[in-house]
Amino acid sequence: MSEKKQLQPIKVFVRPRPLMPRDDKLKVSKVIRHTEARELVIKSGPIDKKYNFDHVFNENASQKEVYEAVVVPFISSIPEGYTCTIFAYGQSGTGKTHTFFGEHEVDIDSDFENDVSIGLILRAALQLFSELGKLNARTDYTVRFSFIEIVNEEVRDLLDDSNHLRVYDDPLKKGSVCLKNMTKCTVFNVHDVNDCIIAGNKLVSKNSNGGSSHVIITFTVDTRERFSNGTECIKTGRLNFVELAGSQNMTRSTQQRAKDFALTNKSLITFGNVIKAIEQKLQYVPYRESKLTRILQDSIGGNAKTCMIATFSSSSLHIDETVNTLEFAKIAKCVVNCPQINVCRKQTDLSRELQDEVERLRKLVTAARESQGFYVSAENYNKMTQEQKDNDAKIIQLLRQIRELEEHKRTLQIQNDNKNDSFLKTKLFVEDAEKQLKAKQNETKQSESRLNALAARNEEMIRNANRALDLCEKRLKEEAIYYRKYQEKCEANKTNTTLVKEINQTTSSGMKDIQQATYAYVNQQKNRFKYIAEKQRIVRQSFMDLASTIGTFKQLDAQESVKNESDDVTELIIKNIHDNTAEKLKSQKELKDVVDEEKKRFAEINEKVKQMAEETVEEVKNNVIIFGNIQSQIHDNVLSGN
Q1: Where on this chain does ATP bind (predicted)?
Q2: Given Cys at both, which of 22, 84, 253, 560 links 305, Cβ 3.0 to 4.6 Å?
């Protein structure tokens, strides 16, 4: 299939890394003077340098912004059969890995569509599968993923480190190379791609000075379109992400450091030489001096669509590396490619052509070996001998070509078998996905039916709710009336409660007064009892004294007294006895009267106390009855209010 050739220069984007916290602590200045969409001005010594690129990102540009500007224009070209390559070039630590792989390792639960930290590779995989899903039903597709690393001119397979990769020229396509034994994993979605990236990153070589290896990730997309006449067209599109090793050592000035850099970064130097040779339009371009440029020959001045992201630090501490990166990006912008669609012929046609070529070469070898001898002159003999030597050399060369073609045929056969197997796996995956989609669609229809039923039920419930709302509003109005009445009853209950509290306080105060009066009366009675007891003791003592006095009286013999004494004396004695006796009897009578009077008074006091106690008890009973009536009335009011 012939395609109209269109020249397309390499697009160059620059992405500055903002100052780091340690730069702020050191009070490091920025080298960026001015930025616009396509223009960058930096301060380099006493002068300012101005650069023009396809796009200049600001320091705070998001991953999504970079992806939409750099990768999105390439995605639609992959199913069409184009090879698209994205380089990341710059000093170590300026954001190459961050740009491609993101801030951190992505797990299975991550949101690939909305996570702002995801890098360009996973974003491209997500959109690529979305684009392939839009292909027509007559087109089959398969996506294979490879992950390799180049360290000191040694190519390593990061998906299977046991494989020994060998780079050789494609005998059927000039300027292209093949990697023998390279692992190509068939992937069906972005999760498979993420798993491969995680597995490969564990084997990537790093040293103490930053990235020392080149990393190449390739998405190989094979599409097979079937036509109505029975023919088919196979196209192979590729999307390469190339993270180049750190370029900071290229500015070292000492000879020893330059020698160390040449030993460890030969491919990076050759990459720069290739860019410069193409920019200067030299006849010889040193692609074969490095495996990196040999593998990516299609992307540098070849038939691929290529762009470059140049990353640099905005810190003035790295001004030399920054200028070197921008100068290199400026040169790369002058490289022009000629993108072409990669159309593969049928394997049967390719095998037939290879077989015909092998048979032709074998016939030439047989004819050269079976030539008949004849007599010739010495001069002709020498000439024929020389021709024979030349023919032998040609035979050896042809035999070598035959072996290479046979080996390439076997390799192509293996690749074709792998491709067919990948197509089959992808087809089975798509068929299974279609079955799941149909099942989901059936579930969706059932869900829609249920949703419709629920919607009808919901409308009915809304109507019922509106009716209930009307009833509630009517009920609320009635409740408002009841509430006002209830408020009035509550106010009355509050008044009654206040009255009850006052009655309780009055009753409590009266009871306290009665208790105090009772205590005072009891104390008074105790004092009276003590007084009476003291009087009784005095009376008993008086009686005892009287009895003792009477006992001391002597019996008088009146006759003897009369006889012995004169009448006056006798009369005086009798009078004394009479007076003494009368006085004693009078004292006893007075004491009895006092006792009787006290008993009578005590009886009166007891009667008064008894009467007062009865009155107090009666008053308390009345208060209790009144309090009970008030409580009953309050309870009835509350019940009637509820």
Answers
A1: 90-97
A2: 84
Give the chain's radius of gyration (CA, Å).
62
Cα dihedral across residues 415, 416, 422, 425: positive or negative: negative
Tokens of 546: 């009287």
- Which pairs count as long-range contacts for 354-358, CB under 8 Å and 24+ apart, including other chains? 354/405, 354/408, 354/409, 354/412, 355/409, 357/405, 358/402, 358/405, 358/406, 358/409
pLDDT digits (tens, 9 = 90+) for 255-296: 545 554 565 567 788 888 899 888 888 888 898 888 899 999
pLDDT tens, position by position, 159-193: 988 878 888 887 667 767 888 888 999 999 999 99
Q: Is the dihedral of CA 130, 135, 137, 138 positive or negative?
A: negative
Sign of CA dihedral 393, 399, 401, 407: negative
Report in angstroms the alpha-carbon separations of 592 from 75, 132, 540, 579, 600: 141, 140, 11, 20, 12
| Overall fold of domain 8-344 | Kinesin (3.40.850)
Q: Beta strand 47-52 with 214-226: parallel, antiparallel or unpaired?
A: unpaired
> Is 45 annotated to bind ligand?
no
Q: Determine whether the annotation assigns residue 97 to a binding site.
A: yes
Check if the beta carbon of residue 87 is closer than 8 Å to that of residue 309: yes
246 is in an annotated binding site: no
Residue 25 annotated as lining a ligand binding site: no
- Per-residue model confidence as pLDDT tens digits over 71-130: 999 999 999 999 999 999 999 889 999 999 988 777 766 777 778 889 999 999 999 999
Q: In what order do the strands lie in the sheet with 47-52?
A: 32-35, 39-44, 47-52
Please state which of the ranges 43-57, 170-184, 199-213, 246-260 shows the lowest mean pLDDT.
Answer: 246-260
* Residue 211 assigned ligand-binding role: no
Identify which of 187, 173, 291 has the alpha carbon closest to the alpha carbon of residue 239: 187
Are 297 and 287 in contact by the 8 Å Cβ rule? The answer is yes
Distances (CA, A) of 517 to 123, 492, 512, 612: 101, 37, 9, 10
Which residue is it, tokens 């599968």?
129
- b or e along 295-334 (b: 16 or more beta carbons within 10 Å of the residue's beta carbon)? bbbbbbbbbbbbbbbbbbbbbbebbebbbbbbebbbbbbe
Binding residue per annotation — 92?
Answer: yes
The response to whether 322 counts as a known ligand-binding position is no
Which residues, at least 6 apart from 558, have a Cβ–Cβ distance to it below 8 Å?
Answer: 570, 574
Structure tokens at 470: 């009307």
Q: Among 17, 88, 9, which residue's Cα sits nearest to residue 54?
A: 9
Mean pLDDT of 10-28: 86
Q: What is the pLDDT of residue 70?
A: 95
**Verdict on whether the full-model pTM lies above 0.85:** no
Cα 224 to Cα 136: distance, rounded to the nearest angstrom: 11
| Amino acid making up residue 430 | V
Rama region for 168: left / alpha / beta (φ>0; ψ in -120 to 50; rest): beta
Contact criterion met (CB below 8 Å) for 155 and 292: no
User: Looking up tokens 């969706």, which residue turns up?
Assistant: 444
Task: Give the span between the Cα atoms of 593 and 608, in whole angstroms.
Answer: 23
595 exposure class (CB count in 10 Å sphere: 0-12, 13-18, 19+): middle
CA dihedral sign of residues 371, 375, 377, 378 = positive
**Would you say the C-alpha torsion 544, 547, 553, 554 has a positive or negative sign?**
negative
**366 marked as part of a ligand binding site:** no
